[in-house]
Design brief:
With 309 residues, this protein is of the alpha+beta class. The chain has one domain: HIT family, subunit A, CATH 3.30.428.10. The chain has seven helices and 14 strands. It has helices spanning 54-60, 104-118, 154-170, 174-183, 224-240, 283-286, 297-308; strands at residues 2-9, 12-19, 25-28, 70-72, 75-79, 89-92, 124-131, 143-149, 188-190, 195-198, 208-211, 245-251, 264-270, 292-293. It has a ten-stranded antiparallel β-sheet with strand order 4-5-6-8-7-12-13-11-10-9, with helices on both faces. A hairpin with a 2-residue loop joins strand 4 (70-72) and strand 5 (75-79). The longest helix is centred in the middle third of the chain and has 17 residues, at 154-170. The chain is globular, with a radius of gyration of 19 Å.
Length: 309
């Protein structure tokens, strides 16, 4: 499913990895961990002026065309006031402004609200989460963002076309082949119905993917609880490794399509928020689309299994 080219230098071994299906590439440099650029968590807790806190969220945020917002548990969902995509919605997850640990119910309610807000649009949906400013969140207050667009984003477009091509050439589903390979590899973390694995060709630091047995948002409600448990497990793994910030995206095909695609959740860890506002994203990640990775996926799988013994 992927190739590995190793280059030994006087300062360590580099790996250049390429995913055969999509052509996505990355480079892994484990010795860069020695830089220790991540710092202790610095979490700004001042909620003054936060539009997502309860004293403001019901008055300053927009409503859907029917004049309402979606309320479920602690969560509040509404259209994004400053959208950067079609069908752009926001779900404020918690009443609390600064959150370190999430409950399963908070994540479940948020996912269900996102599904409710996105499912009526005939488009390509995704559910996304930037947690903490160093992961690109504009506000500390936890929130997910949903997009439902007429054209798939670049990574989904790659997988849609490649999945269909693989099925036509090989006579089987690509994602089933991935599940078989990954479940027997050092990258496997946990899960069966939703398979969670350290992705072999990461697009970000410590990328973990959860592969679902479905392809569209219409089928998602039955897997929300299991997905929430998996997301929290990965968050806990990141915490054990000392990182708190992360990005998450849950990708789906358009309803009615049959590309041989499977919905999948991608999570990457990000550097902790800190007073110097250091970021772990530079030109390789943002311009070359070849992220520089420090952690070997196999080492992440081994670490997880070791911690669970």
């Amino acid at each position: 499913m992927f190739s590995v080219r190793e280059v030994v230098t006087s300062r360590g071994t580099l790996q250049y990895r390429k995913e055969y299906l999509t052509g996505l590439r990355c480079r892994i440099s484990p010795d860069r961990l020695k830089r220790q650029i991540d710092q202790a968590l610095y979490l700004p807790s001042n909620a003054e002026g936060c539009p997502f806190c309860r004293y403001a969220v019901m008055t300053v945020t927009p409503t859907f065309p029917d004049g309402n917002r979606i309320i479920r548990g602690e969560s509040v969902t509404f259209p994004n006031l400053f959208p950067f995509g079609e069908g752009h919605v926001v779900t404020v997850m918690t009443c609390e402004h600064a959150v370190v640990a999430f409950s399963r119910q908070q994540v479940v309610d948020t996912l269900l609200s996102q599904i409710e807000a996105l499912k009526h649009v005939d488009a390509y949906p995704s559910i996304n989460w930037n947690f903490l400013p160093s992961a690109g969140a504009s506000l500390v207050h936890p929130h997910m963002q949903g997009l439902s667009e007429s054209h798939p984003s670049h990574i989904v477009d790659l997988y849609l076309a490649a999945s269909e091509q693989y099925r036509n050439k090989q006579g089987r589903n690509y994602w089933d082949a991935v599940r078989e390979q990954e479940s027997a590899s050092d990258r496997y973390l946990f899960g069966d119905e939703i398979l969670w694995t350290a992705h072999a060709v990461p697009v970000g630091e410590r990328e973990v993917r959860g592969i679902l047995p479905i392809s569209t948002l219409d089928e998602m409600e039955n897997y929300v609880d299991l997905m929430a448990r998996g997301i929290l497990e990965i968050i806990a793994l990141y915490r054990e490794l000392g990182t708190h910030a992360f990005n998450m995206s849950l990708f789906f095909d358009k309803s009615g399509n049959d590309h041989g695609f499977r919905a999948f959740c991608s999570m990457i860890s990000r550097i902790n928020p800190n007073p110097s506002s250091t970021s772990d994203s530079a030109f390789m990640e943002r311009l070359h689309l070849e992220p520089v990775i420090m952690t070997l996926p196999e080492d992440l799988g081994k670490f997880y299994k070791k911690e669970k013994k």
